[in-house]
Amino acid sequence: ISLSGGTLSATGGINNTSTNANAITGFGTITGAISGTGVVEAIGGMLDITSNIGTGVTGLEVANTSASILELNGTVASGDTITFQGSPGTSGTLELTSSSISGNEIGGFAGTIAGLNAGSGATATNEIDLSSLANVASASLNASTDVLTVTTTTGSSFNLQLSGTYTGDVANFT
Prior knowledge:
The chain is mainly β. It has no helices and 16 strands. Strands 1, 3, 5, 6, 7, 8, 9, 12, 13, 14, 15 and 16 form a twelve-stranded mixed β-sheet that branches. Strands 2-4 form a two-stranded parallel ribbon. A two-stranded antiparallel sheet has the order 10-11. A hairpin with a 4-residue loop joins strand 15 (147-152) and strand 16 (157-163).
């Protein structure tokens, strides 16, 4: 399924078990809970997933272009993986839209972020957009566990589980 804008809606949910590398790709809106290990890739624009993402969804991807944005509005279960595609120096954005922090999670996001390439210095390559939080104060990475802890000016914090090898700065705030 290739989306070029518009909405893919399934009130009963989408059980994506396709082994096709391009099972659901493109930009637009997906409404309906997602399950299964098939690929769902944001490419060429914003792919907005408005519903919750069930356990075991490992094929969520952000293509390696600056226009590729995967926006998540619902919860993401532990064990789910969001992967930035491409090699170092490429781009793409994961946007987490919730401003609710509870149980060390932002908006129920318990998934793992793989392939993040934060670049060097102030020039980000991949991005995790937390602009729904107006009060981010700091972020710190535990390099032995790959957990990025984000703290707000009000003292609330949440964790983002990364997968990979990280050194130096992985977070820049403007």
